[in-house]
Amino acid sequence: MQGRVGEPLKLWVNGAECLNPADIAQISLRSAATLQAARDQALDRPRVSLAKLGRLGGTCWRLEKLEMAINGELFLPRSYFFR
Fold first, then answer.
1. CB burial class (10 A; 0-12, 13-18, 19+) of residue 70?
2. Who wins on pLDDT, 70 or 61?
3. Tally of domains within the chain
4. pTM, whole model, 2 decimals?
5. Other beta carbons within 10 Å of 81
6. Distances (CA, A) of 5 to 23, 41, 53, 72
7. Pairing state between β 2-3 and 69-70
């Protein structure tokens, strides 16, 4: 995961147990909204991994590792993590 103020949040996802590795090596996603400076709830590891990206129930995906390259305290509306 990577981001800075004024840019979309970028996320790279590597494989899944239920997928054939030959079919897909990596998926990249970008938020439709740009990141803003946080006033209260900045994107931090616990907030992102547990409350948002960790909600993968009913799919073959699971969150094993999260690498974040976030410059500063950034905010993205919570709704973007559930789309």
1. middle
2. 70
3. 1
4. 0.69
5. 18
6. 34, 15, 20, 8
7. parallel
